[in-house]
Design goal:
single chain; alpha/beta; 39% helix
Length: 312
């Protein structure tokens, strides 16, 4: 089963399935949400903006200072996965988290579920807040989404950081194998999700975290999750690397990084491999202190000052 999970994780370290979304008010992409002042103090603010196709995207902003950090959750996750990072990093700069369409508090009514459409969700939030300099930080599926968003935010993105996602950008899953995996999930979505979680979480994982992730999986709309699964298998990471002309970094925890492959397609690519530490696929949840330290070091190497405050 671990081999199956790793195969699923190969394109961008897949994780869970989407949670229930709520209906929210849309506003025009590129403008501040109606009635909500753009947060530029340490005060937190929650708001909604319409994506390019009008789907409402829920987001949270806290702190001040640029470059802002935009955290993008993975397949089936939501912005709550970054709660620890919001607390630690918002003391030095603005931190934004969002629920991609089909996840958390964002809308589900979308005609085509693609990586590009999720990139538009990120773009809408960045423009709504009028962020001039941002670093996009994407976990799992959020890595490719960050690349897609960076393409759409030329001149605003300082860097892209992938969390357990950019392992080998040249590796593509055989179409027949991809179809077989999708069919397995179609036949038993809940069972496949549970087995995958068991494979990608550390053996000593806090039961509360395991239960939390399992609950999100249980609330999954399979039609959205499987559409995004197919989209992720089809997404060409190497080509996306070539289209994004900013530094790209990776912090990988379940598979080592093929640096040579990444550097063949990006002028500035580097990685931190934490695989021997066995942190699992969700290091922001299972080892937040260590993860935040490594993220702070990665940001510092990019010239972004302000390490997280010890102990939150």
């Amino acid at each position: 089963m671990r081999a199956l999970a790793i195969s699923l994780l190969a394109p961008a370290a897949l994780a869970m399935a989407a949670v229930l979304a709520c209906r929210t008010t849309t506003s025009r992409p590129g403008a501040a949400p109606a009635g909500v002042a753009r947060p530029r103090s340490h005060d937190a603010a929650d708001a909604t903006v319409g994506s390019a196709d009008g789907v409402p995207i829920r987001y949270h902003s806290e702190g001040s200072g640029e470059p802002a950090l935009v955290f993008i959750h993975g397949w089936g996750g939501d912005r709550s996965h970054w709660a620890e990072q919001v607390t630690r990093f918002s003391g030095d700069r603005e931190v934004i988290t969002l629920d991609l369409a089909g996840h958390g508090g964002s809308g589900r009514e979308r005609h085509g579920w693609t990586i590009e459409s999720l990139g538009e969700d990120v773009r809408a939030v960045v423009l709504a807040l009028d962020l001039r300099r941002v670093i996009l930080i994407g976990h799992s599926l959020g890595g490719p989404v960050a690349l897609a968003a960076a393409e759409r935010l030329q001149g605003r993105v300082v860097a892209v950081i992938g969390i357990d996602t950019f392992h080998d950008v040249e590796r593509r899953l055989d179409p027949a194998r991809a179809q077989d995996l999708v069919e397995r999930w179609e036949k038993d979505f809940a069972g496949s999700a549970k087995q995958m979680l068991e494979a990608v979480l550390p053996k000593d994982c806090d039961p509360a975290i395991r239960d939390r992730l399992q609950a999100q999986l249980a609330a999954a709309p399979p039609e959205i999750a499987l559409a995004l699964l197919r989209a992720q298998f089809d997404y060409d990471l190497a080509a996306a690397f070539e289209r994004v002309h900013v530094p790209i970094r990776a912090i990988n925890t379940t598979q080592p990084t093929n640096l040579a492959a990444g550097r063949r397609h990006a002028a500035d690519f580097a990685a931190v491999d934490l695989v021997p530490l066995q942190l699992g696929h969700f290091p922001m949840l299972t080892a937040p202190d260590l993860f935040d330290q490594k993220l702070a070091e990665t940001l510092a190497a990019l010239g972004v000052a302000g390490p997280p405050r010890a102990g939150g």
